[in-house]
Design goal:
The complex is a heterodimer of chains A (314) and B (490).
Chain A: H1 2-28, H2 32-42, E1 49-54, H3 57-60, H4 64-71, E2 77-81, H5 89-92, H6 96-101, E3 106-111, H7 132-139, H8 148-162, E4 171-174, E5 177-183, H9 192-202, H10 215-229, E6 233-238, H11 243-248, H12 251-268, E7 272-274, E8 285-287, E9 290-291, H13 299-313
Parallel strand pairs in A: 1-2, 1-3, 3-6, 6-7
Antiparallel strand pairs in A: 4-5, 8-9
Helix pairs in contact in A: 4-13, 10-12
Chain B: H1 6-21, H2 25-44, H3 48-67, H4 71-108, H5 126-141, H6 151-159, H7 161-164, H8 172-175, H9 199-231, H10 239-270, H11 288-294, H12 297-308, H13 318-336, H14 340-362, H15 375-397, H16 401-412, H17 419-427, H18 429-447, H19 451-456, H20 460-476
Helix pairs in contact in B: 1-2, 2-6, 3-4, 3-5, 3-6, 4-5, 9-10, 9-18, 9-20, 10-15, 10-16, 12-13, 13-14, 14-15, 15-16
The chains are: A alpha/beta (314), B mainly alpha (490).
Chain lengths: 314, 490
């Protein structure tokens, strides 16, 4: 009995010590995303009505400063671009309550093929996730334990940079865009031919599951319905692609994407604005799916600003 | 309930503590049963009805088979019991698959009829508990065991929580005697066993569980993004990328499944039960038959004893042996899921086993050839075997047939392109590092076969440090998204 107790205490202590080590580590090196989220969602906003742009890197390059300048005459509004790199509806769902709590007037949700590229149907999880107890125990402690691996790997990467193993990449932040980091390449407009060649060299087919089995679509619809329940207007728009990308799509892929958009439009009662082909042949890109953050490629941001104005006026 | 969740840790601590506090044997056994049902209900909800149905069905059929004297009637009752078990499994697991095939056939022959799909929920663990339960009625029918004395004992055997969801597949004759005090070869003992927790079992059990969690949460879950990135859509990938994906998946599924088995073994051992080992370093197998002596041992021995041998095994003609091997592996593949990729995976292994047998039969000198006994010869045998095993993993992982055949063709016929592969490696450094680390640790554990036992017998302070290292590795690299065990779906 005594021996059992000793063993049990030893094993429990090992778990507790590891956990405390993690807490200590997270205090010193907090997850930058978590910190920026916490800072943004708990900050005090002025009396202006808020408009949020949500999406992935495809909306990340929308210039929020320019959009704010352009909508100035339309009322007391302020636009925030809440894009994340590699965002998907399933990821965004994590902060839906925080978004609702800020009571935005309108949400502009940018979608593309990538947003709906989800795990295949037969890989859909069989058990609830994340665990209920895990949520209660960990989420309310005051630290973000949602992804310690991200912080650990970031720490390792930073140490390697510090030691000179890797070249340091500088990231820049832009106003009204709290979660999206820009690296130097994103400011350059690449030559269209180079973009096409690079794409053909590294191209991988995109698989988008049909609406009936598309998990990301289901989550997006759920989110939109939640926003609408809280009287937040939602406008969906498709993000632009380069011609090389559009040409690489098969008929089947295009049909599936259209079916998804139709399904979304009908089920969620939202109008979808199409920008996916609008700039395909312009010279405004840094790769096939990202418009550059450059003064000569502001057409994308200007168009979105016009769309916002039209929605405000409605 | 997921093993890799805080819910399970709390559940397990509560169960172990309760078993320690309760002294009355009968209550201990009832608690174990209630805990097992709760464990299953937590994830499966109303589908627990199927588990209870299977338990009742086989419990009563076991008794009837035992009491029946006439061999003919006995056989008839036995067949009815089998039909009930396999019918339930077939209906829930394969109905839609069969309907889809019928519809496809109807379409091809232009019959103009479409049977609507049933869209049944797949009951978690149905393949496992059906196979557990079958060993009981088969054991009684074959005269290898007697029926249990109480329903509770039988229900504990079918629903025993450590192995309920993903095995190892228990055999009634090995497990049921452990519920009784006195163990005899064919008969169960007279008194219910007191469930006590011994310090040596506790230490070994915790060590096994810790390594199981490490395999699952540190290795398998963190290698998964690399594998998914390759196999969600492999079309357009280079040969080396496909090979990397196959290696990644082979390691992922091994860590996932053997991790689950280790946790199951450890959890059972803590409360004083011994359940069979399921893995024995399968990636050091020197032939396809050796692989199946090391991989999912409880399933391969089940298939051997309850399918291969009844079909005639290797006691009939050579051709019949090859046929038996292929048919058994085909059914083994189908057991994993109602999908052609599992069938292809099973058939590939059936072909490997048959070809291996054909080669040994044709070239008898190979079996005792000196070269294959040397270290270099063994390495060559391992590489050839694993090349084939990892080829079959592609069929297991990639469900879409076009993608599967593309991947298999790239695996077999190298294109010697590496631009994409290098970029891929650059993007997935962490999973690649884990693959390398796994290979090193796998070699170490192969060389020191009793590594876990040695660790569990270390001085308490050293054991404590090892536990801290393991738990830290798990939680520091936890990606916030606990993945299901792959075998959960089977």
């Amino acid at each position: 009995m005594r021996a059992n107790l000793k063993i049990s205490i030893t094993a429990s202590s090992a778990i507790i010590i590891s956990f405390l080590l993690l807490v200590f580590f997270l205090v010193i090196f907090p997850d930058p995303t978590y910190v920026s989220e916490k800072r943004f969602y708990s900050s005090k906003f002025d009396s202006k009505d808020k408009i949020f742009i949500i999406g992935s890197s495809h909306t990340g390059n929308l210039n929020a400063t320019l959009i704010n300048e352009q909508i100035q005459g339309s009322g007391n509004y302020i636009v925030y671009n809440l894009s994340y790199d590699s965002d998907k509806p399933s990821k965004r769902l994590r902060t839906i309550n925080e978004i609702i709590n800020l009571k935005p007037q309108i949400i502009f949700y940018g979608v593309s093929y990538n947003e709906f590229q989800s795990i295949t149907y037969d890989e859909v999880k069989t058990s609830p996730n994340p665990s209920y107890i895990q949520n209660i125990l960990l989420k309310n402690i005051g630290f973000d334990f949602s992804n310690p691996q991200f912080v650990t790997l970031q720490f390792i990467r930073e140490s390697q940079k510090y030691l000179g193993v890797y070249a340091k990449i500088d990231y820049l932040m832009q106003p009204y865009t709290p979660f999206f980091e820009y690296h130097a390449r994103q400011f350059i407009i690449e030559n269209n031919l180079d973009i096409e060649n690079e794409f053909l060299k590294t191209k991988k087919e995109i698989i988008v599951n049909p609406p009936q089995v598309n998990q990301e679509l289901t989550i997006l619809k759920k989110m939109i319905s939640e926003f609408q329940k809280h009287k937040i207007k939602v406008v969906v728009f498709t993000t632009p692609y380069h011609r090389a990308f559009l040409n690489s799509l098969s008929d089947n892929q295009k049909e599936t994407f259209e079916a998804i958009l139709n399904d979304l439009q009908n089920d969620s009662n939202v109008t979808i604005y199409r920008l996916d082909q609008k700039y395909a042949d312009l010279s405004i890109w840094y790769d096939v799916s990202h418009v550059s953050y450059n003064e000569n490629s502001m057409i994308y941001s200007e168009d979105l600003a016009n769309l916002i104005v039209s929605k405000i006026e409605q | 309930m997921l093993f890799n969740s805080i819910d399970f840790i709390i559940f397990f601590i509560v169960v172990v503590t309760s078993l320690t506090i309760i002294k009355k044997r009968k209550f201990q056994h009832l608690l174990l049963l209630a805990a097992s049902y709760f464990f299953f209900y937590y994830t499966s909800n109303y589908l627990i009805v199927l588990l209870i149905f299977t338990t009742l069905w086989d419990f009563y059929f076991g008794n009837i088979i035992y009491k029946t004297k006439s061999i003919k009637i006995k056989k008839l009752i036995f067949i009815t019991s089998l039909a009930g078990n396999l019918g339930l499994l077939g209906f829930f697991k394969y109905a839609d698959f069969v309907i889809t095939q019928f519809n496809f056939l109807g379409q091809t022959l232009d019959l103009g009829t479409q049977i609507p799909l049933l869209h049944l929920a797949l009951p978690i663990a149905i393949s496992f508990y059906t196979f557990h339960s079958l060993t009981y009625t088969i054991g009684i029918y074959r005269g290898q065991m007697q029926p249990v004395k109480s329903f509770t004992e039988y229900a504990i055997f079918v629903a025993f929580f450590p192995q309920l969801v993903a095995g190892p597949i228990l055999r009634a004759k090995e497990f049921l005697p452990q519920l009784r005090e006195k163990m005899e070869s064919l008969e169960v003992g007279s008194r219910l066993r007191q469930i006590t927790i011994h310090d040596s079992n506790l230490r070994m059990g915790i060590t096994l569980m810790a390594f199981g969690f490490l395999k699952k949460m540190f290795f398998a879950d963190n290698i998964l993004p690399l594998v998914n990135d390759i196999f969600t859509n492999p079309i357009g990938s280079e040969s080396f990328t496909i090979i990397l994906g196959a290696i990644g998946f082979g390691i992922q599924i091994y860590c996932d499944f053997s991790g689950y088995s280790d946790i199951a073994l450890g959890a059972a051992l803590v409360i004083g039960f011994k359940i069979p080992v399921n893995f024995n370093k399968p990636y050091f197998a020197i032939s396809p038959s050796d692989f199946w002596r090391r991989w999912h041992i409880s399933l391969s021995t089940w298939l051997r004893d309850y399918l291969y041998i009844p079909l005639g095994g290797n006691k009939k003609s050579k051709f019949r042996t090859y046929f038996n091997l292929i048919i058994v592996m085909f059914l083994g593949g189908l057991w994993h899921g109602a999908s052609w990729n599992f069938v292809i995976w099973g058939l590939l292994h059936g072909v490997y086993l048959s070809c291996h047998k054909i080669i040994l039969n044709k070239f008898t000198f190979l079996e005792n050839n000196y070269f294959f006994k040397t270290k270099f010869g063994k390495i060559i045998s391992i590489i050839i075997t694993q090349y084939l095993v990892f080829l079959a993993w592609i069929a297991f992982r990639v469900h879409d047939t076009n993608m599967m055949f593309y991947s298999i063709s790239k695996y077999l016929i190298l294109d010697f392109q590496w631009v994409q592969t290098l970029q891929f490696i650059q993007f997935h450094k962490f999973p690649i590092l884990l693959i390398l680390l796994f290979i090193i640790l796998h070699i170490v554990s192969y060389k020191r076969s009793n590594l876990l036992e040695t660790i569990s017998k270390l001085r308490l302070i050293k054991w404590f440090i090892i536990l801290i290292v393991i738990t830290s590795a798990i939680i520091f690299f936890y990606n916030g998204n606990p993945e299901d065990f792959i075998y959960f779906k089977f």
